[in-house]
Amino acid sequence: MDGHPYWMKQRFENSGVANSLIYASQITKARHAHQLTAATLYNLLHKAYNSYVEDVSDERTLLLKDDLSQQQVSLYPQFKFWYLVLECKI
Fold it and tell me: pLDDT value at position 90?
């Protein structure tokens, strides 16, 4: 980084920006990990909904998957977190 202004040298050396630019494979790995997480969360959500459908005795009280998800979001903060992660899928 010789010949560059001090502020530029500091920015790249101290923040790790240069390394992240050099190693684009890390971005690919992170994207792949997020896609895998999103697929797993979707499968778990689908299995949970199917289990819910089997347990409901009165079909008139059956909630749609989105309605049930919104109900769970309002009741459980952890469900809300993972539901938001799923909504941000790549």
Answer: 42
- Residue 59 DSSP symbol: G
Q: Give residue for tokens 């009741």.
A: 75
Q: Which long-range contacts (CB under 8 A, 24 or more apart) does 63-67 make?
A: none
The DSSP call for residue 32 is H
CA pair distance 86, 39, nearest whole angstrom? 8
Of 46, 88, 43, the C-alpha closest to 65 is 46
pTM here is: 0.62
Whether residue 27 contacts residue 33, with contact meaning beta carbons closer than 8 Å, is answered with: no
C-beta of residue 87 within 8 angstroms of C-beta of residue 28: no
